[in-house]
Amino acid sequence: MKITSICCIGAGYVGGPTMAIIAQKCPHIKVTVVDLNEERIAAWNDDDVNNIPIYEPGLSDLVAEARGKNLFFSTEVEKAIDEAQMIFISVNTPTKTYGLGKGMAADLKYIELCARQIAAVAKENKIVVEKSTLPVRTAEAVKNILDNTGNGVQFQILSNPEFLAEGTAVQDLLNPDRVLIGGDATNGQEAIDALVEVYANWVPREKILTTNLWSSELSKLTANAFLAQRVSSINAMSELCEKTGADINELSKAIGMDSRIGPKFLKASVGFGGSCFQKDILNLVYIAKTYGLNKVADYWEQVVIMNDHQKRRFSNNIVQTLYNTVSGKKIAFLGWAFKKDTNDTRESAAINVSDFLLNEQAKIAVYDPRVKEKQIINDLIYLKSRSLDDIKKGVIVYDNPYEVCRGAHAIAILTEWDEFKEYDWQKIYDNMQKPAFVFDGRNILDAKKMTTIGFVFNAIGGANE
Ligand code: UDX
Ligand code: ADP
Predict the structure, then answer these.
(1) Which CATH code fits 234-459?
(2) Which one of 48, 327, 329, 414 is CB 3.0 to 4.6 Å from 361, fit for a cystine?
(3) Mutate to test the pocket of ligand 1, among 92, 166, 413, 418 (most ligand atoms within 8 A of CB)
(4) How far is residue 107's CA from residue 125's CA, in Å, rounded to a whole number?
(5) Do domains 5-211 and 234-459 have the same CATH topology?
(6) DSSP assignments along 296-344, one per residue
(7) Ligand nearest to the backbone CA of 444
């Protein structure tokens, strides 16, 4: 079967970039991305492509090229489902905040809604592709809903998890390490082949891996768990480095040169963030517990516990270094996004660190090159730890890095934006309170240069000290 029409439900950080690449690489396929969120769709359709809702290097050019030709953004979910041969489900699967599995399990209510909607609308056979990260065996539930509530048409379910990382999404999609397609080879080979053919338009066939549904679903959770585990492992060692005089950067280099370990994902930090790592590990822990595998669950839970510890440790260090009180002191945050080159702030360490410091009555001043004030305030409201009034009293957002640091007692680097390295640090130092403290939560600044200027400089894991 040759695919000529695709619809993607969910115009987020995964659905948007993925569909833009498919549209660009497959001019013969009409790609429609739909979302219930009218504001988000309007932003995707903004005449000025710089206003698309997601900041991702290279993405606005891609959208400019394909939009209106074979790439469309719309709120007409039913129409798009009706017209498409293949439907990607790329909606959010946040951690449940209520009931059974609260705080651990993935909330599948948006997935279920999509399945019910597809079943209600479809008048012809459809291939349904799980793009969102899902607990293992979700495809079974999706298939049950489709088959039991549909109009008698045939549905084939595929799992096609997305491995792109934010900030490098376009490159990751153009040159993926692998594309994973899970399906039922006995009854659904035609659907598997159809999706393989879509990717084969630009991905070498040897990188397109087909597996059964459950391996595909579980591989995505496993990949994220392994990546997060590496960050927690190196962060655990950063604390030991601080006690022993070892340097975490030297340690990372030394172990990363072992080809069995490899150099990536060994950068010590204030803690990992992002919409995936914590959510997916908690989900994995929940699944393991559901099967009674408590030792497996405890093992993976430690990755999240260590990450929480790292964020707390970073905050405590600021308070202790500033003579045990930050009450009334201006602490400048450079960065709010969970990593550089994205405007995404979900689970960003900056949110927790600011929460701890607000509890200590600090005055938080924030500058991030891509995150807007509204988002920062919303992130703090979402914590439900204080009123909007208190947030506004405690947090000021700036649009200039030199102003955010002016008069500050300390600077905390929360995101590794490249531009932070290029600032005139002497000028920043001259305008700060003395002693002028810097807490580099990303180990991006040159410790020797900073101490020569006069800063009291703190890096994670004693890096370069
Ligand atoms: C991750 C996976 O990498 C990706 O394959 C999956 O599809 C989604 O989840 P993402 O969350 O976008 O991607 O970014 P990633 O680059 O993995 O970084 C996650 C967090 O870990 C960030 O906060 C980052 O700063 C932190 N990190 C990463 C470190 O602290 N140190 C490292 O060495 C690497
Ligand atoms: P991700 O990072 O996984 O892409 P996002 O939260 O950025 O997640 O995007 C998910 C999108 O899915 C949101 O824009 C949300 O409005 C949309 N969405 C959720 N449920 C539905 C639904 N039933 N129909 C259409 N869009 C939906």
Answers:
(1) 3.40.50.720
(2) 327
(3) 166
(4) 28
(5) yes
(6) HHHHHHHHHHHHHHHHHHHHHHHHHHTTT--TT-EEEEE--SSSTT---
(7) 1
Q: Respond yes or no: is residue 276 known to be catalytic.
A: yes
CATH of domain 5-211: 3.40.50.720
Q: What is the pLDDT of residue 1?
A: 87
Quick one: average pLDDT of 301-314?
98
**67 phi and psi, to 5 degrees?**
-60, 135
Pairing of strands 363-367, 179-182: unpaired
Which residue is catalytic, options 8, 241, 276, 405? Answer: 276
Residue 89 in 3-state DSSP?
strand
Q: How far apart are CA 86 and CA 102, in angstroms?
A: 33
Read off the pLDDT of residues 60-83 as tens digits, 9 standing for 90 and up: 999 999 999 999 999 999 999 999
Give the mean pLDDT of 136-160. Answer: 93
Split at pLDDT 50, 70, 90, the class of 464 is confident
Q: Contact 415/444 with Cβ under 8 angstroms?
A: no
Tell me the CA end-to-end span of the chain in Å, nearest whole number: 61
Cβ proximity of 401 and 368 under 8 Å: no
Could you state, in order of their start, the residue ranges of all structural domains in the chain?
5-211, 234-459
Q: Is 352 in the pocket of ligand 1 (CB under 6 A)?
A: no
Please work out whether the CB of residue 276 comes within 6 Å of at least one atom of ligand 1: yes
Secondary structure (3-state) at 10: coil
Which residues, judged by CB distance below 6 Å to any ligand atom, belong to the binding site of ligand 2? 9-15, 34-37, 40, 77, 90-92, 110, 113-114, 132, 275
Q: Which ligand is nearest to the CA of 234?
A: 1
Does 465 score more than 80 pLDDT? no
Cα-to-chain-centroid distance, residue 367: 20
Question: Is the beta carbon of 165 within 6 A of some atom in ligand 1?
Answer: yes
Over the range 88-98, which residues count as b (16 or more CB within 10 Å of their CB) and which as e?
A: bbbbbbebbee
| Atom number in ligand 1 closest to CA 169 | 12
Q: Which residues contact 292 (CB under 8 A, 6 or more apart)?
A: none
Q: Closest ligand 1 atom, CA of 277?
A: 9
